[in-house]
Design brief:
Blueprint lengths: L1 E5 L3 H11 L2 E5 L11 H16 L6 E10 L10 H16 L7 E11 L5 E12 L15 E3 L6 H4 L8 H15 L1
Parallel strand pairs: 1-2, 1-3
Antiparallel strand pairs: 3-4, 4-5, 5-6
């Protein structure tokens, strides 16, 4: 089996290909992105647009969207994480979430799969955790220095590649792999 994964990141394509156990062709597309907190809504819209732009009905098209969802903020920033980080960064997010406030959060990844007939399926990977009180660790990217998964006392950044063993992205793509096995 083969699929197309829409990403600009070759390392991510390789990582996902290993999880899925199928050949993945990488497509670098500049897709419009709706402004929504729910990563499933954003990923589904992008997968549909990618399938249309690629014009490749012979292969399923995969798109992912992810973010950190802070419980005290009703899931914000969610799919808007990239823009929040670009605007205020980790330090800004930490200042917006004062000590004593509920720091529970979830790292969420949603993979949307667009099939040849236009059907779009979504697969969600979620890791509960907390927002650290300060940025820690040099690895990773985005919110990795401030997110502590429930299964560790270290941030994603401190875990480095070790986070991939059970990250939100790994969980989402494992769900895709299971679906491929059943389809």
């Amino acid at each position: 089996m083969k699929a197309i994964f829409v990403t600009t990141n070759e390392h991510k394509r390789s990582e996902v290909q290993e999880i899925l156990g199928i050949a993945l062709e990488r497509a670098d597309l500049n897709l419009p992105e709706i402004q929504a907190i729910d990563p499933a809504e954003v990923a589904a819209e992008k997968a549909s647009a990618a399938r249309e732009a690629l014009g490749r009905p012979d292969l399923p098209v995969l798109v992912e969207d992810s973010g950190i969802m802070v419980d005290a903020w009703d899931g914000f920033p969610g799919a808007l994480t990239k823009w929040l980080m670009g605007s205020v960064g980790n330090e800004g997010l930490l200042r917006m979430l004062p000590e004593g406030e509920d720091r529970s959060a979830r790292a969420v990844c949603v993979v949307a799969l667009a099939e040849a007939d236009g059907t779009v399926r979504t697969f969600r990977g979620e890791v509960p955790g907390t927002v650290a009180s300060e940025a820690r660790g040099a690895g990773g990217f985005g919110y990795d220095p401030i997110f502590v998964p429930e299964w560790s006392s270290m941030t994603y950044a401190e875990l480095g590649e070790g986070k991939n063993a059970d990250s939100h992205r790994t969980r989402a793509f494992r769900a895709v792999r299971e679906w491929f096995g059943e389809a």
